[in-house]
Write a structure and sequence with these properties.
2 domains; 8% helix; mainly beta; Cdc20/Fizzy; repeat; four-stranded antiparallel β-sheet; Methylamine Dehydrogenase, Chain H; five-stranded mixed β-sheet
């Protein structure tokens, strides 16, 4: 039944209207008295109505207190769209008048350019208002042809796909290294910034010049001692040598002269790491000694924390943090002044010898576990958190990060004795290199960052080209295919 007014006549329902004040001024018109060039007129039009012309690649920023109309999410206001199709069942006049009212209200509040409402569920993480309008569109969408996006167009816009880098599967050089020990806890190979390789063989240290292939015998410790670790200083020609008697010797390789001998450890010294003039040594006696070669004392501080032999030591690239790994399955991080570890990681289930700091991201540390663990784990020492873990399937003996690209190499023992090149952070395998018949216990990288050398108990050193050259370096490395062949290091 229709509603009746006071006179008793039927009253017809009318859609609600928005009552505007009769004195409200209308929008002022803009009149230009002077003739203008077409380019000037276009500029003026863009100023009056900036929505007419928008850059296809630049975002449009509005005032920081006034949200962008086209970028905001008006669906949260609950206003229905002005272009809804009529219901098939037919609604009464009240429903249609309500829809008309909502349509008028949308136009009055938000203008004609308001995006249509989309049916979305409310998300607390999304804001209603936006202060930036993204206008980036595919280039073909603004062409006059107006064709639809298809796979061929997308492929053409992306350009040619870069072929994956090929890593040679065979070593370009092999050196015989008699008496190279098959001992997981030792570190017997290191490559100097001056392109000289140091190798501990039995009770002797030999130097191999990668530029001339010349071999030099640096020292002989005698029948009562043996070499357990070698490590080059970051600058200069000094080489640190750890011995089975718990002593540490520093040699000047340019003159084949011993500079000094330092004591302090009771058992063999299997891990060494330089940080400028500070030299850290890790031993089977579970301790780490910090030595300053500028002072007469054998060591300046002693780091205690490991419950078994220390077999891995690496300073970060900024020389602010020292990472240590031990046969107690622990990975510790120390700072320059601490005598107790500032970070402790106990997730590995086997000895931690493999340690590498990323040269690309501050605080990113990689570590590898032994036979019972087989995992490479990544840590953020800035936030004290584990980032990821990957099971390699074999004992992890060494890790080294490329300084040229965001990739790293791992060497393995039981049971596959392989070398793997990884792409970080996806940890996809770029190459798996085989050739050693024993555990690949030793690893070093060339100063140009392109070549690695691996050593194993099969008494061979193998040289592999695994990393690309730096982008700024156009010339070939001094060590390369010109040294093909097999020779003896002593």
């Amino acid at each position: 039944m229709d509603d009746l007014d006071l006179s008793g006549r039927p009253q017809q329902l009318l859609p609600p209207r928005i009552n505007l004040h009769p004195t409200m001024p209308s929008a002022p018109s803009v009149v230009f008295d002077t003739p203008q060039k077409p380019s000037d007129q276009a500029h003026v039009n863009r100023m009056i109505n900036p929505s007419n012309t928008r850059s296809p690649s630049k975002p449009i920023y509005s005032d920081r207190f006034i949200p962008s109309r086209s970028g905001s999410n008006f669906s949260f206001f609950g206003l229905s769209s002005s272009h809804k199709p009529p219901s098939a069942e037919g609604k009464d006049d009240v429903s249609s008048s309500s829809a008309a009212y909502n349509s008028l209200l949308r136009a009055a509040l938000f203008g004609p350019d308001t995006p249509e409402r989309k049916e979305e569920s409310f998300s607390a993480s999304r804001n209603i208002f936006r202060y930036k309008t993204g206008t980036k569109r595919p280039m073909h969408s603004i062409t006059p042809l107006g064709f639809e996006e298809d796979d061929a167009v997308v492929a053409a816009n992306r350009g040619p796909v870069k072929a994956p880098r090929k890593v040679p599967r065979s070593p370009y050089k092999v050196l015989d290294a008699p008496a190279l020990q098959d001992d997981f806890y030792l570190n017997l190979v290191d490559w100097s910034p001056h392109n000289v390789l140091a190798v501990g063989l039995g009770n002797c240290v030999y130097l191999w010049n990668a530029c001339s292939s010349k071999v030099t015998k640096l020292c002989d410790l005698g029948i009562d001692d043996s070499v357990c670790s070698v490590n080059w200083a970051q600058r200069g020609t000094h080489l640190a040598v750890g011995t089975s008697n718990g002593k540490l010797q520093v040699w000047d390789a340019s003159f084949c002269k011993r500079v000094r001998t330092m004591e302090g450890h009771r058992l063999r010294v299997g891990a060494l790491a330089w940080s400028s003039s500070l030299l850290s040594s890790g031993s089977r006696d579970k301790s780490i000694l910090q030595r300053d070669i500028r002072v007469p004392e054998d060591y300046v501080s002693k780091l205690s924390g490991h419950k078994s032999e220390v077999c891995g030591l690496k300073w970060s690239h900024d020389n602010h943090e020292l990472a240590s790994g031990g046969n107690d399955n622990r990975l510790f991080v120390w700072n320059q002044h601490s005598t107790q570890p500032v970070l402790k990681y106990c997730d590995h289930t086997a000895a931690v010898k493999a340690i590498a700091w990323s040269p690309h991201l501050h605080g990113l540390l990689a570590s590898g576990g032994g036979t019972a663990d087989r995992c490479i784990r990544f840590w953020n020492t800035s936030t004290n958190s584990q980032l990821s873990c990957i099971d390699t399937g074999s004992q992890v003996c060494n890790l080294v990060w490329s300084k040229n690209v965001n990739e790293l190499v791992s060497t393995h023992g039981y049971s596959q004795n392989q070398i793997i090149v990884w792409r970080y952070p996806s940890m996809s395998k770029l190459a798996t290199l085989t050739g050693h018949t024993f555990r690949v216990l030793y690893l070093a990288v060339s100063p140009d960052g392109q070549t690695i050398v691996t050593g194993a108990g099969d008494e061979t050193l193998r040289f592999w080209n695994v990393f690309p050259s730096p982008k700024s370096q156009n010339s070939n490395s001094e060590i390369g295919s010109s040294f093909l062949g097999r020779t003896v290091i002593r």
